[in-house]
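Handout, page 2. Input:
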Amino acid sequence: MQNTPSLRRTALLCGMALLAAPAFAQDVYPSKPITIVVGYPPGGSTDLTGRNVALELSAKLGVPVVIENIGGAGGAIGAQKVASSAPDGYTFLVGASNEIAINKLVTKKVKYDVKDFTAIGLIASQPLVLVASTGAGVKNLAEFTQKVSKNPGKFSYGSSGVGTSLHLAGEMVKEQGKLFMTHIPYRGVAPLTNDLMGNNLEYGVFVLSSGLPHIKSGKVIALGTTEAKRSAATPDIPALAETPQYKNVDIGVWFALMGPANLPKPVFDKVKKALNDTLQSPEFKKKMEASGSTVAATTVNIDQFLAAEVAKYKKIVEFAKIEE
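Output:
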């Protein structure tokens, strides 16, 4: 039979092991599948970005990384779920500019803010593209400007919804070009596409990756991309900013990896490294560039970037009096 000192030593060692368990659990993070929430149905540019990131992170972190599509409210429902999740490193958001930075500015229904997330890093960006239907009677930006300016209020442009980056880009074009057009908000890209190709709408704004197939097929006409410089994916489409009248048009859609606020530093550091390794992966870059996106540099300060984007969007929202 063990004596009393031996029993005490055994009990002490067991107690120390129990105390060390949480630290050990942190050391082996991740130890179970990770969920990446995408606030849109499958098939869109955010979903494609999320799935490409999930594959890379899974390989680098050694656990399955699964996509959960939670559509609705311009991405806000999915974003809210992540903002409200436990900061344990098992729930993240691959979000676009809409749900991360814009929605809060245009609707009081959105309760979360940028500060309710831990920003891991910028993933990629791509321009939007201003297009005309084949029945609009214009072939380039100069003809568009001339026709719309001579007929104030006669023409309309469509976007995928109120307060989206597509809507804000259209309002920026109107402000820079001193144009008067009516905004027609659609419930997503599909009905917008149908009306443009059916010549029921004169003009529209697409994310480049969504518009490119229709531009290549000749079903819509590209008037210009919305970032300051031409996209490497479409060097034959001029940037709107190349025309002096639209020189300040610089807006696109970007994608970022976000976790809940107060993510533990060891978890943040591990996921951040995995993301940076992903951004430097030639295979990942090839996939993203094929869809019209430019992969972000690992040197981007995501917090400074988000602050600047929110400030830019706030000016557009206030100018256009956008509210939902």
